[in-house]
Design brief:
Length: 183
């Protein structure tokens, strides 16, 4: 592993961004509940900040060679919790189709089960490009859905595209996990 590329206090910034994203979740939920079934620029802004910090924390951790065990668990957890909270609320208010929630929940359960199987064996799968793209598309689609009116259909179409990418990414993770388990 390469030596850390930044001073010790700065090396904590990626994990601090992840923790901040976790703290944004209840703020986001309150803003969404206040908006009800209407658009919310405030909730959209919080969701956008979460999406940006998701990209920044991982980029900095890799670039500065300060990846941590905490970050490898907390970063995807923060992403899943933020996206799941948004999808649950958007479905509850009739702004996204319930089938999307089923796909998201199934994907998250698959990831959790995979982690529970692989982690004790010391197997750590890297995030694949399709998984990253799926997260970006889902953040964009959900963010746009939060700030647009119900008659605006394209954020829902973008959401389905993001879900499709997430399913493809999950298939790659299953393939990679299978290979690692049978080495």
């Amino acid at each position: 592993m390469a030596a850390r590329a930044v001073p010790a206090p700065l090396a904590q910034l990626p994990n601090a961004l992840t923790v901040a994203r976790l703290f944004l979740i209840p703020i986001f939920v309150v803003l969404m509940v206040r908006a009800g079934d209407g658009p919310s620029w405030a909730a959209g802004a919080v969701f956008c900040v979460a999406g940006i910090t998701d990209q920044v924390d991982g980029f900095l951790a890799r670039r500065w060679h300060v990846e941590s065990r905490f970050g490898k668990v907390a970063d995807p957890l923060a992403d899943r919790l933020m996206i799941d909270a948004a999808v649950i609320l958007l479905v509850a208010y009739g702004r996204l189709p319930w089938e999307g929630l089923v796909v998201i929940a199934a994907r998250d359960l698959l990831l959790l089960a995979g982690w529970r199987i692989l982690q004790p064996r010391g197997i750590d799968l890297d995030v694949n490009v399709v998984g990253k793209a799926a997260t970006w598309v889902l953040y964009a689609a959900i963010g746009f859905r939060i700030v647009t009116h119900d008659h605006t259909q394209w954020p829902v179409d973008l959401f389905w595209a993001g879900l499709g990418l997430a399913v493809v990414a999950a298939m790659f993770y299953v393939r990679d996990a299978w290979r690692e388990l049978h080495r």
